[in-house]
Structure to design on (166 residues):
């Protein structure tokens, strides 16, 4: 085995050679990047006159909650002015029930609120497309977890309705 000894002069020459090459590598290639963006404003719409949308079920018998009984309309208004497109979408944002994430969570164990557009189930947090001014007709119906025994008392659920362009 042979040992090669490098003296201080050789180290300086080697470093100087590396430093001289590095700037050339850094400037080897350049390019200009152009980015174009179109900013789209949210639709100029007002949902339900900026008032809460309330659905009152009245008296509900716990033994009659079956996903059909107590179906109530979700009455709301939608006013859009100066919209650039009539192709829109609607979403009900909320927390899904533990027993079924597609229905709205209530404060009653084993009870949820299913949303429908006509006879079609509208899952919570999913978009529904429509053409303004023909707003979707929405319904709410209490549903219970399979095998659950519901207890009496008041119940409530909360969600946020959003409208956007398609």
């Amino acid at each position: 085995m042979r040992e090669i000894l490098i003296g201080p002069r050789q180290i300086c020459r080697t470093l100087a050679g590396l430093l001289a090459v590095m700037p050339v590598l850094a400037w080897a290639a350049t390019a200009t990047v152009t980015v174009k963006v179109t900013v789209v404003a949210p639709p100029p719409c007002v949902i339900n006159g900026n008032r809460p949308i309330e659905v009152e079920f009245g008296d509900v018998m716990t033994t009659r909650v079956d996903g059909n009984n107590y179906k109530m309309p979700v009455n709301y208004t939608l006013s859009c002015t100066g919209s650039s497109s009539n192709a829109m979408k609607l979403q009900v944002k909320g927390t899904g029930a533990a027993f079924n994430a597609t229905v709205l969570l209530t404060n009653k164990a084993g009870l949820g609120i299913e949303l429908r557009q006509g006879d079609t189930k509208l899952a919570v947090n999913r978009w529904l497309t429509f053409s303004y001014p023909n707003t979707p007709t929405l319904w709410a119906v209490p549903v219970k977890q399979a095998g659950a025994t519901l207890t009496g008392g008041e119940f409530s659920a909360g969600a946020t309705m959003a409208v956007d362009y398609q």
Summary: The longest helix spans residues 8-26. The first strand starts at residue 45 and ends at 47. The chain has one domain: 45-165.
